[in-house]
Amino acid sequence: MERTLVLVKPDGVQRGLIGEVIARLERRGLRLVAAKFIAVSLELAETHYAIHKGKPFYEGLIGYITSAPVMAMAWEGPNAVAAVRQTMGATRPTEAAPGSLRHDFALEIGRNLTHASDTVENGEKEVALWFKPEELVDWQREIDRWVFEK
């Protein structure tokens, strides 16, 4: 069972799309295991985007993610990383598949609504960065046997 981080970034929050993101991931069959609405600290932003430090767009990323609240969530399910990324769509909204969140609601890469972990390993690291172990809820849904094969 994979876990992945999903952030509804400031543009998605400001546009009232938190519910849309949650609804699509729930309908996809993924299970929400943690969620919190937070103002991102400079320290958390710098740690989250450390891989981009030194790149020309780094300061913009930091300024943007700390500019307004975000909805941080951890989701799980079989192939959760790939399923979430497919549901979100390509990073560049104009390249996102029809029906994906970014295709349906975004136009520019700098306002692409969400962040989703790109690998299983990064999903584990990012969930651990954004959530304390006690904030993750281990639970089973009655429908899990109808969604997950094992």
Secondary structure layout plus pairing:
Elements: E1 2-8, H1 10-14, H2 18-28, E2 31-38, H3 42-48, H4 58-65, E3 70-77, H5 80-88, H6 101-105, E4 114-116, H7 120-130, H8 144-147
Helix pairs in contact: 2-5
**Helix-strand pattern, N to C?**
EHHEHHEHHEHH
Any idea of the CATH class?
Answer: Alpha Beta
Total number of domains: 1
- What proportion of the residues is helical, as a percent range? 40-55%
**End-to-end gap:** 9 Å
Inertia-based shape: globular
Beta-strand portion reads 15-25%
Low-confidence stretches: none
Structural write-up:
- There is one protein chain.
- By secondary structure, the protein is α+β, with helices and mostly antiparallel strands.
- It has a single domain, classed as Alpha-Beta Plaits (2-Layer Sandwich).
- It is 40% helix and 17% strand.
- The protein is built from 8 helices and 4 strands.
- The protein has helices at residues 10-14, 18-28, 42-48, 58-65, 80-88, 101-105, 120-130, 144-147, and strands spanning 2-8, 31-38, 70-77, 114-116.
- A 4-stranded antiparallel sheet has the order 2-3-1-4, with helices on both faces.
- It starts with a strand and ends with a helix.
